[in-house]
Write a structure and sequence with these properties.
The protein is an alpha/beta fold. The protein has one domain. 48% of the residues lie in helices and 12% in strands. The strands form 2 sheets. It has a 3-stranded mixed sheet with strand order 2-4-3. Strands 1-5 form a two-stranded parallel ribbon. Helix 1 packs antiparallel against helix 2 and helix 1 crosses helix 3. The radius of gyration is 20 Å and the shape is elongated. The chain starts with 7 loop residues before the first strand and ends with a helix.
């Protein structure tokens, strides 16, 4: 069993989750899946012109990891564009930047810890 994948930080959810060639019915198209972090890597490096090391830091991963994610995403997009295939953006190992607190922990994790603390406090009060 391999190591658990580290979640990648994505600044915003994709504005569209599906792209297809115009004029071809959906039932005739092959669909390729592009992960959300793959789209984010392409956005940072190709659209914003960031160096890979800066983009990797922004996503919270190593430069080699970003390179692999970026290479895979570019291959999917190139295959879809050159072969007339549809692209569905979904899945992957990521979290949204808006889910982070100032100290860097995930808000969900912090909320869970607060709920856990409150339930313990309630149990203590009820026991008295």
């Amino acid at each position: 069993m391999g190591r658990r994948k580290k979640k990648r930080m994505v600044e915003q959810a994709p504005c569209a989750s599906f792209y297809k060639p115009q004029g071809i019915p959906m039932r005739e198209l092959e669909i390729l899946v592009l992960t959300v972090e793959g789209l984010e890597a392409m956005r940072l490096v190709d659209c914003e012109g960031m160096q890979q090391i800066a983009a990797a830091d922004r996503m919270g991963v190593s430069r080699p990891t970003l390179g692999r994610v970026l290479s895979e995403a570019r291959k999917i997009v190139a295959t879809a564009l050159s072969g007339g295939k549809a692209i569905r953006v979904e899945g992957g190992e990521y979290f949204l930047a808006s889910e982070r607190t100032a100290c860097g922990k995930l808000k969900r994790q912090r909320a869970w810890m607060l709920d856990e603390t409150r339930s313990r406090q309630t149990e203590t009060v009820d026991d008295q």
